[in-house]
Amino acid sequence: MKIGITCYPTYGGSGVVATELGIELAARGHEVHFISYAQPFRLTGREERIHFHEVSVSNYPLFEFPPYSLALASRMSEVANYYNLDVLHVHYAIPHSVSALLARQMLARTRRLPFVTTLHGTDITLVGADRAYLPITRYAIDESDGVTSISDYLRRKTAETFGTTRPIEVISNFVNCDLYVRNPQITPAIRAQYAAPDEAVLVHLSNFRPVKRVQDVIQVFACVAREMPARLLMVGDGPERSSAEWLATSLKISDRVNFLGKLDQVNELLPATDLMLLPSEMESFGLAALEAMSCEVPTIGTNVGGVPELIEHGVTGLLFPVGDVDAMAQAAVALLQDRARLRTMATAARQRAQKTYCASRVIPQYEEFYRSLLRDS
Questions:
Q1: CB under 8 A, 24+ apart: contacts of 74-81
Q2: Domain for residue 180, yes or no?
């Protein structure tokens, strides 16, 4: 198949999932065309059967806000027509599904171009639920040829928020279990770059938006650091980074916290850690936790959204109410001090990822979903 994919190319879950999906589809022999304003950050530009098409937006003095959605729709139709795409797959409803709808209508006289909308979370719970965007988001969802969501929680939330009765297929996020794995040849050396042999290594991975509650991460770690030798690796960047840095300094733990910025090869770093901290206010799935699980790293997180679908409390991780920093810290210390329990939980996390969330299990679900749309079109 020839598949067009549109996503936000920035450091965030929807962009990661869309990019990894394209990489996996290309590896299975499909031709993939990314259409966005910038190349997705996890693409190297050297992958076989993957092409990138930039969307250029003109800055006319008349436009206070350049009309990206219109430029995107135009570019979608051009790419689909020139390369004879079979299907468009857009990630994050606003504005991508609206642009795909326009592209489909632009080509309607000559051909049928079905498009799939994958809902990722804040496009529904924050942006789409905003009264200014709710009607257009509902319309785009209803007009999509197929809709998927990354968790059953998000499927239910979409129906509740928009009152839509159309079918929504749950196809979970995934991880390449062969790539996200402990490697005895390189993992010890990477760990040694950040911590002494007697230090525990905790990690947080996100885009540092307010919903991720990165200050809670720092507070949890501060409690851990008072009880045992430990290091914290903060992976990512975003608007809350400066406040997290300030808090680490004020709590006198800045010498134990490494802000690493955006990293492409997190698959090499995660196996070198012991515990993931994910105290988010909301997660529709929890991709960072899944990537950690595949690397035998349990997560201490919050019991919100789709996280309980991924993490079984007490088995593959530990879940607490939002903001309960003390409970999360106490649990982290107890787990890190009980190495046998930590090892058992780490093994269970890896097994859970392999059983349900490996790319080799999830990608065929997308392929069949595409085929079903093409059969019906």
A1: 74/103, 74/106, 75/35, 76/4, 76/6, 76/35, 76/100, 76/102, 76/103, 77/102, 77/103, 77/106, 77/107, 77/113, 79/4, 79/33, 79/35, 79/53, 80/4, 80/107, 80/113, 81/107, 81/110, 81/111
A2: no
